[in-house]
Amino acid sequence: MNKHIIILGVSLILYSCSATKQTSKNTTQILRDNITFLIQEISTDKTYGLTPKNPVEVGGAKDSEGVQNERRFLNALAGPNGERISYYRAGSCCPVKSDNDPFGFGSVMLDNYRVTWENSKDTVSIYINMYDSGKLKAPVGFTIK
User: Fold this and answer.
1) Which whole-number Å values give the CA distances from 62 to 40, 59, 130, 131, in the listed order?
2) Long-range contacts of the stretch 23-26 (C-beta < 8 A, 24+)
3) How far is CA 89 from the centre of its chain?
4) 70: buried, middle or exposed (CB in 10 Å: 19+, 13-18, 0-12)?
């Protein structure tokens, strides 16, 4: 009985925030320096990076640079008035479809980072996909460093 409840619980967690993304992208990212991506645009889409259904796609996992690319993206951001941000990885969540799944199952997990800055009232969750690579933009509410 308990085994069935655990399996059901794990299944619900894995599929509860599943994104609807259908195609994988492989855009080449541009470095500003070794620890920062060059981002030139702020998104007008209020869901970009702020929901699991529309994650930031930094790529790099196939070259063992996925985590580094996540940090390169975050290092390019600033608070709404140019404030220096701080962030930490809150964990993995939310399976999304990807042709770049290294295990061949057709889906990958996103990483969730919690971001804050001086005098902010709360932290903001940013969802990042290290398996696919798309055009990088700052999410709504952020500026570019």
Assistant:
1) 25, 8, 9, 7
2) 23/99, 24/97, 24/98, 24/99, 24/100, 24/131, 24/132, 25/57, 25/132, 25/133, 25/134, 26/59, 26/100, 26/132, 26/133
3) 10
4) buried
Position 97, amino acid: K
Q: Give yes or no for residue 6 having a pLDDT over 50.
A: no
142: its two tokens: 């952020």
* Residue 89 neighbours by CB under 8 Å, 6+ apart: 70, 111, 112, 113
Q: Does residue 86 surpass a pLDDT of 90?
A: yes
Sign of CA pseudo-dihedral 20, 15, 135, 127: positive
**Tens digit of each residue's pLDDT (9 = 90 or more) over 10-28:** 444 444 444 444 445 789 9
pTM for the predicted model, two decimal places: 0.83
Tell me what pLDDT residue 26 has: 84
